[in-house]
Amino acid sequence: MRNIIFDFGGVLVGLDRRRCIDAFVRIGAGAIAGYVDECRQEDLFHDLEVGDADVSQFCDAVRRACPGCTATDDDICGAWNALLTGIPRRRLDKLAELKRAYRLVLLSNTNPIHWRKAADDYFTQGGLTVGDYFEKTYLSYEMHMLKPGEAIFRKVLDDSGMAAGETVFIDDSAANCAAAGRLGIKTVHVTEADEWIGRL
User: Fold this and answer.
1) For residue 148, cis peptide bond before it (omega within 30 degrees of 0)
2) Is the alpha carbon torsion for 5, 8, 12, 18 positive or negative?
3) 34-66: pLDDT as tens digits
4) C-alpha 167, offset from chain centre
5) What's the pLDDT tens digit per position in 98-120?
6) Taking the complete model, does pTM exceed 0.90, yes or no?
7) Which percentage of the chain shows pLDDT scores above 70?
8) Which residue of 5, 15, 23, 84 shows the fewest CB atoms closer than 10 Å?
9) How far is CA 53 from CA 21, 101, 122, 135, in A?
10) At 105, phi and psi to the nearest 5?
11) Order of strands across the sheet with 103-108?
């Protein structure tokens, strides 16, 4: 093994759907709570994650979907960011340790709201940046691709020059791991965010 591809949500950053749902309800966007509760990646959330809508367009879509909602863009972004609970120091320390021995990249189905929060607040502990942990980040909203499509994995391998047989992919989605495995990438499917720490 020479290379490790990390997922973001549920592997590095913790997720709390209940907190996010409550935050949307508080700003009068209760109709959106159903999307979060059901983990739906369609419509306005899909468009944001695949880069077909920017932040302001997403916020406009939330207000349209929730009659009577007058929340500001900042309020909506804050409610959506309530899904994220942060990255514990122990995970960042493990990344720093692994980076001394392996090439590390991040591949995530994510959106500019969550990524900005993570880059500004979570990866900066101890005065570091995302670049101190990962050689490169591959983000769905920038790539206009989503996991578990095999094309996004091929793009990462081609762009990074990593060989599939020398690479392991860590994700909390069985479907994403299966897609990577079909290309010859070794996979680690985790059901708890800290699980990978003890397996690498």
Assistant:
1) yes
2) negative
3) 778 665 556 788 899 999 999 999 999 999 999
4) 19
5) 999 999 999 999 999 999 999 99
6) yes
7) 97
8) 15
9) 22, 38, 24, 27
10) -135, 160
11) 136-139, 103-108, 3-6, 167-171, 186-189
Calpha distance 179→184 (Å, rounded): 9
- Give tens-digit pLDDT for 168-180: 999 999 999 999 9
Q: What is the 3-state secondary structure (H, E, C) of the chain?
A: CCEEEECCECCCEEECHHHHHHHHHHCCCHHHHHHHHCCCCCHHHHHHHCCCCCHHHHHHHHHHHCCCCCCCHHHHHHHHHCCEEECCHHHHHHHHHHHCCCEEEEEECCCHHHHHHHHHHHCCHHHCCHHHCCCEEEEHHHHCCCCCCHHHHHHHHHHHCCCHHHEEEEECCHHHHHHHHHCCCEEEECCCCCHHHHHC
How open is the CA angle 112-113-114, to the nearest 5 degrees?
95
- Total number of residues shown for the chain: 200
Residue in this structure with the two tokens 């860590």, named with its chain if needed: 170
CB distance 179 to 187 below 8 Å:
no
